[in-house]
Amino acid sequence: MTPSIIEQVRPPVPADKLDGEIDRLLDATESVHAEGWYPEVEVVRPWSTHNPRISGEFARPEAVRRYLHRELAALVAAGATVTVRAARPAVPFDDPAFFAALDEDRFDLRVKKLFLFGPERMALSLDRLSHYTGTPAESFQRHVLFTNYAMHVESFLERFPDAERPDRDGVQMPAYHHVRPGGDGVSLVNIGVGPANAKTITDHLAVLRPDTMIMIGHCGGLRNRQELGDFVLATAYQRADHVLDEVLPADVPVIPSLRLNSYLMDALDAADATYRPGVVHTTDNRNWEFNQSATLQRMQLARAVAVDMESATIAANGFRYRIPNATLLCVSDKPLHHEPKLAGGARAFYEASKRKHLGIALDTVERVRTEHPDGLPGSEVRSADEPLLGNGPDGA
Asked: Is 244 in contact with 320 (CB distance < 8 Å)?
């Protein structure tokens, strides 16, 4: 039997009552879901000529409550009417229909809709986030840092000793959360080494709609005047990671968020850090040095300044899923200059660089938090006719 829960907010809503009205809507979505149904959120936007009505179905809406509150409040304030109702029974994981619903090739990303993902995809990603990170998906904050070294975890826990930690040992990509009201804190995920993990975590994290993603890993420096401990600020990526080629061809330009990069540059200057902006070559072959010619030729053609194994993957998925992202790497070796990464030297380097590296990223997050409390402008990550709510009178 379909739940009888139907809630609606119609404009005009006084500013002092808006938060309460949106909370009432979101409480209704969670009540519908608790009864075993996917809640549907319908938005009617009188200013839109081509897409006046958009809607979306959700699984575990409490996981994106912060995001929905912000976006729906802006829509109602702009004059939209929002309605919540039960859409259809939630599909269990072991139902054959669940697997069929996961195929993004059947989900037209170019059609204007309220949310980028279907509820089955959302449910699976939320479950897998808990599996891979050892923390509930609901614990993730608006700003997410990725690392592939335990030393950054150590620095993060020094900085935030009360951070939420994984609930068990041995998880594949442990996450740590400095929780602030409204999800305004920072999450750090140790994704390990390689593009496969980078794709996996960002595939699933995308359903939470984070405001920022920043990679703070290490790289091989490719230029003569780079020194160990110098930073690299990615301005573009050469994709040789291959894990996303079937869904995002390698000739599609992928660049980091210009705003995030400008904030990172300011933080680097404030920290008196030596850095070089430029192209980062991301490879899926940790031992590319054993068969050098093809990789070296590509690096030279792109005028790459650094090589790593994760940055382009995170950036490409950020591009696919419309999430502002950036990359700040630290040079840990110089493979072309007789300074390979060796165990003893690496340990000394890591100890010297870890706090400064994390601090620059956190300073950048703080600036985003201060200057863009409602998130970075969406125009940097999507075109005018793409999905994701589209609040305001200029929404198509």
From this structure: yes
